[in-house]
């Protein structure tokens, strides 16, 4: 059996080996930048100036006409531009659709959580209302005192008025 003369372990990967790593989304990001530029007024202005200069030079130049009147080369340039621009724009739209889909899913999850929280709070509020329904309130106590005063008659009116005043003060303060 041959011996390992390099003194390196064969059961471990090599270290220090440089790997060329490429970001898989670099082309998609580039296409978005190009598509964004193609949709600006700046691009239209630059393209318009280039076309006007192209046509003017080819119509007025006596020597060196590279694209005479039917402007076949100019049409070829426009066709090539359209052939590349359309897929780049579609790629940028697909990436935007993916971002919109993720955003929509997050919004749905947030809405579901908000709905669940609202339903929980509504149940808690209903239970508090039920619990408070059994608590004696100031108005209920006053009405019971008034009924008691009516039953006792007018003989103890002064004492009842003083008691009612004390209760009102303690309830208000």
UniProtKB/TrEMBL annotation:
<keyword id="KW-0472">Membrane</keyword>
<dbReference type="InterPro" id="IPR010406">
    <property type="entry name" value="DUF1003"/>
</dbReference>
<protein>
    <submittedName>
        <fullName>DUF1003 domain-containing protein</fullName>
    </submittedName>
</protein>
<feature type="transmembrane region" description="Helical">
    <location>
        <begin position="69"/>
        <end position="91"/>
    </location>
</feature>
<keyword id="KW-0812">Transmembrane</keyword>
<feature type="transmembrane region" description="Helical">
    <location>
        <begin position="43"/>
        <end position="63"/>
    </location>
</feature>
<dbReference type="Pfam" id="PF06210">
    <property type="entry name" value="DUF1003"/>
</dbReference>
<keyword id="KW-1133">Transmembrane helix</keyword>
